[in-house]
Design brief:
QueA-like, Thrombin, subunit H, 2 domains, 19 strands
């Protein structure tokens, strides 16, 4: 078992990080990994339908990203609003943290925002003088590696075309490649997992087994459970979908409709019980997401595929190309 954090490291040239989406969602390249033969194909995302069989079902995450990034009125403090704890009371990430210690104040939309206390992982509990609509003037919370503040293009493109249920602070990025036309061409259903900051927290322990994930809320409707239980082969679209399907309650082998939360951390030698294939983007070094795909396809195979993707100048991360593991 590869349990050392450095077993999941690789070097990525900075220029391969996609800072902008492609002109069309389905223009993406798609690397196809065949687990049985340990072989790699280079395809287009538009080939997806040709790689599916009649009994295959795509399961997608229909969470909707909140415009949760705000700045103080003077522009010096950046807030990422994670969770509303009560009227005018929020859990936030704040940058720079040194300017927002316990008792510090600033203003948002002319309303005083005070740091009540600092909690786990450096998050702040922020109390506003009065309740305001945080999201009305917020922006998309793009990941830091994109290296820029979001703009009007991101309002549409950092959101899947099938996003329905608001609650995420990050996009389920494997779904960003889909268009309405693509969805019409494939058999699919939806579950919901509201992606939180915990999905992307760095692993800080050398022994990855010591890492703990934050809980994230999910739901599986009765309709989705019925469709999933009838499928011949389940294709999870994204690591968030994979985590829901592998952690959701089952009865006599059948997925049950449910609302719940999961803190499942999937890493080798995890044995998958539900999903048969996985569509996913390329993930950061030493990340829990890279560990999940390594559990599904094998660490050596994944790192070989990543090395080939780098040689082939694939685009990486949220706005990047994708990988289908079958």
């Amino acid at each position: 078992m590869n349990s050392n954090l450095n077993d999941y490291n690789y070097f990525l040239p900075r220029e391969l990080i996609a800072s902008r989406p492609l002109p069309k969602r389905d223009d993406s390249r798609m690397m196809v990994l065949h687990r049985a033969t340990q072989t790699i194909e280079h395809r287009s995302f538009r080939d997806l339908k040709n790689l599916l069989g009649p009994g295959d079902l795509l399961v997608l995450n229909d969470t909707r990203v909140l415009a949760a990034r705000r700045f103080s009125d003077d522009g010096t403090i950046e807030f990422l609003f994670l969770e509303q704890l009560g009227p005018a009371r929020w859990k936030c990430l704040v940058k720079p943290g040194c300017k927002m210690r316990a008792g510090s104040t600033t203003a948002i939309d002319g309303v005083t925002a005070r740091v009540e206390k600092i909690v786990a992982e450096g998050a702040r509990i922020i109390v506003l003088d009065r309740d305001i609509d945080i999201y009305a003037r917020g922006s998309m919370p793009l990941p830091p590696y994109i290296g820029r503040v979001s703009d009007t293009e991101d309002e549409a493109r950092y959101q899947t075309v099938f996003a329905q249920k608001a609650g995420a602070i990050a996009a389920p990025t494997a779904g960003l490649h889909f268009t309405a036309e693509t969805l019409r061409e494939v058999r699919h259903t939806f579950i919901t997992l509201h992606v939180g900051v915990g999905t992307f927290r760095p692993v800080l322990t050398d022994n990855i087994a010591e890492h703990r994930m934050d809980e994230e809320q999910f739901s599986v409707s009765e309709e989705a459970a019925d469709i999933i239980n009838q499928a011949h082969r389940l294709v999870a679209v994204g690591t968030t979908t994979a985590r829901v399907l592998e952690s959701a309650k089952r009865c006599q082998g059948k997925l049950m409709p449910q609302n719940g939360s999961t803190d499942i951390f999937i890493y080798p030698p995890f044995e998958f019980q539900i999903i048969d294939a996985l569509l996913t983007n390329f993930h950061l070094p030493r990340s829990t997401l890279l560990m999940l795909v390594s559990a599904f396809a094998g660490r050596e195979f994944i790192l070989r595929a990543y090395a080939e993707a780098i040689r082939g100048r694939y685009r990486f991360y949220s706005y990047g190309d994708c990988m289908l593991i079958i």
